[in-house]
Automatic annotation (TrEMBL):
A Pfam family assignment: HTH_1
Originating species: Lentzea albidocapillata subsp. violacea
Keyword Transferase belongs to the record: no
The protein, known as: DNA-binding transcriptional regulator, LysR family
InterPro entries in the cross-refs: LysR_HTH_N, LysR_subst-bd, WH-like_DNA-bd_sf, WH_DNA-bd_sf
Length: 297
């Protein structure tokens, strides 16, 4: 029995259970009366037992018809919440946006983006997923999230990105370090330094690896962390140096921030899958980000 063919017929049978009058049911479901009669007859033939018997100008469900109508009612009732969710998903004013982003963006950047959009679309709901860069990108590829806000934006033909903002990269050293008096530092100056960084899979780690490779420097990583503030704390206590962005608030005591030359920025991009159709609410949020913050790459 074809499930796609069965569903509309069960909906008609459910209506007949409530009003045992074929003509009125046909009008209610928007079908010709002969179609309703034929569908019910076909269901009975497939089951090997009639579902209706005529009683004058009305019809009455047989025991088999009643049992099937009750099952149809339970099944269709169970579907109703899902159908409402689908309707909301397709409504740009009531849909849901699942945004994945780096932990550090939860303090200001993401709230700012979301606030601006919610001011125009107050009924749209958000799912916010925070993780390391590669984990966020993997969730985008698997369909767990709609959009990814990461640095650097992933490259490849399957991705499309909007640059949302850029942060200058700096070198942080402990107070009293040999480089402290420098106005600017090159990556090559760090060749003999103990480096403190994030674990592989984090965007800042990828940037550090790439910049060291480009400068011909083999990095000597002594600490691999999961939080940028941990990196700052270790540097402040004299345990190494690091490549970071400026502290959002006052850096911890004992830390010195030095400019990097040539100037290099950490680019944050809003990314989606190029060939994956975005639901209306997600598309509207992406367009809001592009309109208010983005530069197309």
């Amino acid at each position: 029995m074809d499930e796609l063919d069965l569903a509309p017929k069960l909906a008609v049978l459910k209506a007949l259970a409530a009003d045992e009058h074929v003509t009125r049911v046909a009008e209610r479901v928007g079908l010709p009366q002969p179609t309703v009669s034929r569908w019910i007859a076909e269901l009975g033939e497939q089951l090997g037992a009639p579902l209706l018997v005529k009683t004058g100008r009305r019809v009455r469900l047989t025991r088999t018809g009643r049992l099937l109508a009750e099952a149809a009612t339970r099944s269709l009732t169970a579907l109703e919440p899902g159908l409402r969710e689908v309707e909301e998903e397709l409504d740009p004013e009531k849909g849901r946006v699942v945004l994945g982003f780096l932990h550090m963006l939860g303090r200001a950047i993401v709230p700012e983006l979301v606030r601006g959009y919610r001011a125009e679309h107050p009924h749209v709901r958000f799912g916010l997923v925070q993780n390391a860069r590669q984990a966020v990108v993997d969730k985008l590829l698997s369909g767990e999230i709609d959009l990814a806000l990461v640095a650097p934006p992933p490259e490849g033909p399957e991705f499309e990105s909007v640059v949302v903002f850029e942060q200058p990269l700096i070198v942080v050293v402990p107070a009293g370090h040999r480089l402290e008096s420098r106005r600017a530092v090159r990556i090559g100056d760090l060749a003999d330094e103990d480096l403190i960084t994030l674990e592989p899979g984090y965007g800042l780690r990828q940037i550090t690896d790439d910049m060291c490779a480009a400068a011909g420097v083999t990095p000597r990583y002594v600490f691999e962390c999961q939080e940028i503030e941990t990196v700052r704390g270790l540097v402040a206590h004299g345990l190494g140096v690091a490549l970071l962005t400026h502290a959002e608030f006052a850096p911890p005591p004992g830390l010195r921030e030095l400019s990097l030359t040539p100037r290099t920025g950490r680019i944050f991009g809003l990314t989606w899958l190029r060939d994956n159709p975005l639901p209306p609410a997600v598309r509207a949020f992406r367009d809001h980000a592009l309109r208010t913050h983005g530069v197309q790459r």
